Automatic annotation (TrEMBL):
It comes from Chlorobium phaeobacteroides (strain DSM 266 / SMG 266 / 2430). One of its GO terms (molecular function) is ATP binding. One of its GO terms (cellular component) is plasma membrane. This is Diacylglycerol kinase, catalytic region. Keywords: ATP-binding, Kinase, Lipid biosynthesis, Lipid metabolism, Magnesium, Metal-binding, Nucleotide-binding, Phospholipid biosynthesis, Phospholipid metabolism, Transferase. Residues 2-130 form the DAGKc domain. Its cofactor is Mg(2+). It holds the Pfam family DAGK_cat.
Length: 309
């Protein structure tokens, strides 16, 4: 049956530390000119996912108006359906869009052009123990970056790069590398590591934390996830790696394992913090299985023809 609406816009007014709320008037103005679109606002964390689950019965495209967290919730509501997601980038980082359509990441002047062309992108599926699978569209981090994401989220004032620098410094105090067992499954090899790990991430997009080029070789459509493991290093050395992460040159470092795979399993001996697209999951322990779900998400492309890979 044809859907009644084409677009449902879902605004997270709390995105960008509450600054996204100031875009409500502009978004309502956009939507009010059309018969095929409606506008909704979230009232609490997790609400975008609830709205998206009910709206997906009626809409062909759900537009995430916020940052990566808003997109993450909507993606998890539509995965497995034919509903597309669109993006109005008014969050702090909007890291997914930096890979998908980098030219649209102009925060001062966000745009949305009504179109219907979509591109399929991969997703990463994550299951902890026997729990349900949750999906990330941009990146997953365990340990250091999970803890940084937790501090960034709790901080109500500092946004953008300042927020990440503040969080990094706070997390580094008292931080110890994590003991992990990692099993990376590639087409022609299995890599097993029993390591103390300083930082661990799995990426679909290239950028994490606003400006860190964690996965310079990542492509959203290659059916692969990019794994980046920084082995145990002296804590003070990490500042050198921050510069390398910004430039993407860490992947050639002898302390870094960087590779691509379709599936990864990690075993965490102690409860840890994990982030998926910047959303924080506490107390993750035991077996964490991650597998790519190739071309599983339809993403609306900018109709102005500015798309680049
Ligand atoms: N009405 C609301 N009140 C409070 N929190 C909300 C509300 N709606 C959504 N949230 C939460 O706001 C958080 C931040 O959203 P989001 O990640 O989109 O913005 P951001 O952090 O500025 O962007 P980015 O992740 O790109 O840096 C998410 O965890 C989301 O669950």
């Amino acid at each position: 049956m044809p859907k009644r609406l084409f677009y449902t816009f879902i605004l997270n007014p709390a995105a960008d530390k509450g600054r996204a709320a100031s875009r409500a008037g502009w978004l309502k103005g956009l939507v009010s000119q059309r018969k095929d679109a409606v506008f909704m606002t979230t009232a609490f964390s997790g609400h975008a996912e609830e709205i998206a689950r009910s709206a997906s019965a009626d809409s062909a495209c759900l537009v995430a108006c916020g940052g990566d967290g808003t997109l993450h919730e909507i993606v998890n509501a539509v995965v497995g359906t034919d509903v597309a997601v669109g993006i109005v980038p008014i969050g702090s980082a909007n890291d997914f869009l930096k890979t998908f359509e980098p030219r649209r990441c102009v925060k001062q002047d966000p745009s949305f052009s009504f179109g219907s062309d979509t591109r399929l992108v991969d997703l990463g599926g994550v299951s902890v123990g026997s729990g349900v699978t949750r999906y990330f569209v941009n990146s997953l981090g365990v340990g250091l970056t999970g803890r940084i994401a937790r501090v960034v989220k709790k901080n109500r004032w500092l946004k953008g790069e300042l927020g990440y620098v503040h969080a990094l410094l706070r997390v580094l105090v008292g931080y110890k590398p994590l003991k992990m067992h990692i099993k990376i499954t590639q087409d022609d090899a299995i890599i097993e590591l029993h390591e103390s790990v300083f930082a661990f991430s799995i990426s679909n997009g290239k950028i994490e934390g606003g400006k860190f080029l964690i996965a310079p070789d990542a492509l959203l459509t290659d059916g692969l996830l990019d794994i980046c493991i920084l082995k145990s290093i002296p804590k003070l050395d990490f500042f050198r790696y921050v510069i390398k992460y910004i430039r993407g040159t860490h992947i050639n470092d002898t302390n870094v394992v960087y590779c691509q795979a379709r599936a990864v399993e990690i075993f965490l001996y102690e409860p840890e913090v994990m982030h998926l697209d910047g959303e924080v999951f506490e107390g993750v322990q035991g077996s964490v299985r991650v597998a790519v779900r190739p071309l599983a998400l339809k993403v609306l492309m900018d109709a102005s023809g500015l798309n680049v890979e």
